Amino acid sequence: MFRSVLLLFFWCLSAGIYGQSLKKYPLAESGCQYYGYCEIKFEYSKSVDSSAIWSGECIKDSVGYGVICVRLLNPIKEMNLAEDMMIAYADYLKSSFEIKKSAGYGKGHRLQQRENTRGIVDYWEDGEKNNWKIKAWTDGKCIGFLYVYSKKALQEPRVNLFLDGFRLPE
User: Fold this and answer.
1) What's the confidence (pLDDT) of residue 72?
2) What is the rounded distance in angstroms from the CA atom of residue 86 to the CA atom of residue 68?
3) Which of 34, 65, 76, 97 could cross-link with 140 by S-S, CB 3.0 to 4.6 Å?
4) Residue 27: which of 62, 66, 61, 79 has the closest Cα?
5) If you ran DSSP here, which 8-state letter would residue 165 be given?
6) Beta-carbon neighbour count of residue 151 at 10 Å?
7) C-alpha span between 40 and 110 (Å, rounded)
8) What is d(CA 11, CA 36) in angstroms, rounded to the nearest whole number?
9) What is the pLDDT of residue 21?
10) Handedness of CA 127, 64, 121, 146 (dihedral sign)
């Protein structure tokens, strides 16, 4: 009896976390894609160096989900330099989002175990006490910056599915 109840509990828990409506969406005309819980309407702009930028966010169940994609005008072949560029971009966004606290970038991540990618992760808190988790990805041609924020504690399994769901152009 106890075992049956325990199995039912774990099934319900996993259905609650993974049974959400995660869908694959194209990221405007960038060639990138993302897996999300809500469809994002992207705005297009250009950076100072004329790199193409798509950005947008959506709200689902009191949680903000955002994606920013930069297609670099001048691709970077050296992955360490590409990672440095991605971190500089994340630092810029940190100030734009008025982040007050940061855990510090965790490096060494690979998108889908692809060696020609680099990724970072960080936890932030803004001035309104929102909890943030960010991940950024690059292959030297594009930078994908994904973020989630909420006043409540973030549900890590759900958040991670979104943050790891970025897809670079093939």
Assistant:
1) 97
2) 12
3) 76
4) 66
5) -
6) 10
7) 24
8) 22
9) 86
10) negative
* DSSP label of 11: H
Residue tagged 């992955």 (tokens) = 79
Residues 6+ apart with CB under 8 A from 105: 87, 90, 120, 121, 122
Strand partners, 124: 102, 132
- Write a three-state SS string for 57-95: EEEECCEEEEEEEEECCCCCCCHHHHHHHHHHHHHHHHH
Helix H or strand E encompassing 60: strand 52-60
Residue 111 DSSP one-character state: G
Amino acid residing at 34: Y
* Cα distance between residue 72 and residue 169, in whole Å: 13
Model confidence band, residue 20 (pLDDT cutoffs 50, 70, 90): low
* CB burial readout 39-65, b (16+ within 10 A) else e: ebebeeeeeeeebbbbbbbeeeeebeb
Half-sphere exposure of 47 (CA within 13 A, CB side): 16
Tokens coding 59? 């709200």
Q: Is 21 exposed, middle or buried (0-12, 13-18, 19+ CB in 10 A)?
A: exposed
Span 123-138, pLDDT tens digits = 999 999 999 999 999 9
Determine the length of the chain. 170
**Residue 104, both tokens:** 């510090």
